[in-house]
C-alpha cells in the first residue's frame, strides 16, 4: 500500500533561503559602498561637467518655447502668448519665406560638397603620412598641414583676397602672364562655391588627419608583417590592413558629419560672402543673424534653429541605425 507524501517544503528551508537572499543583498550593498569609498573623488570631478551641461545646455532649453510663442522682451517664456495655428505660426512663416528656402538649399548644397569632397581628404593625407619613411619630414609636413586650423576665417578671407582677387590677386596675375583670362574665384557663384569648399579643406584637413593618425597607431604591426610574407604590395597593405583598421573611426566621423547636414557655422560663410554671390552664400546661420539679431524676429529664428536641430538629430539617428545594419558599431 502506497502512502501519499505532502508536497510542502520544510520551514527551515524557507528560513535558509530568506537569510541567503538577505546576506546576498548585504554583500552587494557592502561592495557598492566600498566602491564609492574608493572612487568618490572621480564622481566629485564628474559633478563639474554635469553642472556645466545642466546650467549652460539644458536650462537654456526653456527658451525653445519662443519658437511657439509671440516673443515679448518684458515677459518670461512661460508668460508669452501662444502663436497662431496651434503655435506653429512661425514655422509656417519660415517655409513661406523665400530667403529661408534659398538659405536651406545653400546650406544643404555646401554641406554635401564638404562631405563628398572634404571628408576623404584627411583620410588620404593620413594614409600618405603613414607611408612616409622619413619621420622628420613626416612631422614637418603634419605641422604645416594643421597650422591653418588655428587661423580665424577673417584672416583666411584676407589671404584669399590677396591670392584670388580677379585683378590684383597673385594667382590671377600668374594666370594672366601665362596668357589666360582671370578666374573670378570670389565673384562668380559657381567659382565661389568651389573656393569655399577647398578653403574649408585647407583649413581643416591637417587637424582631422591627427584623428586618423592616432587610429593608425592602434593597428597591430604583425598584420603588416603577415601581409609582407604573403607578398602584398603597399597598395594591398593599405587596402586590406590600414583601411579596415580605420573603418570604425571613419564610420564614427561620418555619422557625426551626417548629423550636421543642415547645420552651418557662421564665421566661414559670413567672412567669405559678398554681394555678388549672395544667392549661394546665404546659409541658415546668416539667415538667423539677419532676421534674428538684426531684424529682431526672435520667434521666427528660434523656430528655424529648432527645425535645424530636429532634422540634424533625425539624420544622426538614421545614419547610426544604417551603420549598425551594415555591421558597424555605430555611436550608441
How would you describe the overall organization of this protein?
The chain is mainly alpha-helical. It folds into two domains: 16-68, no CATH class; 85-325, MetI-like fold (Orthogonal Bundle). The chain contains 14 helices and no strands. Helix 3 (98-118) packs across helix 8 (189-216), helix 3 runs antiparallel to helix 13 and helix 10 runs antiparallel to helix 14. Residues 1-9 have low confidence and may be disordered.
The secondary-structure class comes to: mainly alpha
Give me the count of strands.
0
Our count of helices gives 14
> What radius of gyration results from the CA coordinates?
30 Å
Fraction of residues in H or I helices? 55-70%
Helix-strand pattern: HHHHHHHHHHHHHH
Major beta-sheet overview: none
CATH class term of the largest domain:
Mainly Alpha
CATH hierarchy: architecture of the largest domain: Orthogonal Bundle
Percentage beta strand = under 5%
What integer is the average pLDDT? Answer: 88
Number of domain modules: 2
Shape estimate = flat
Write the layout of secondary structure elements.
Blueprint: H1 11-58, H2 89-96, H3 98-118, H4 120-131, H5 135-146, H6 153-164, H7 170-177, H8 189-216, H9 221-229, H10 234-258, H11 267-272, H12 278-281, H13 284-294, H14 298-325
Helix pairs in contact: 2-14, 3-8, 3-13, 4-8, 5-8, 8-10, 10-14, 13-14
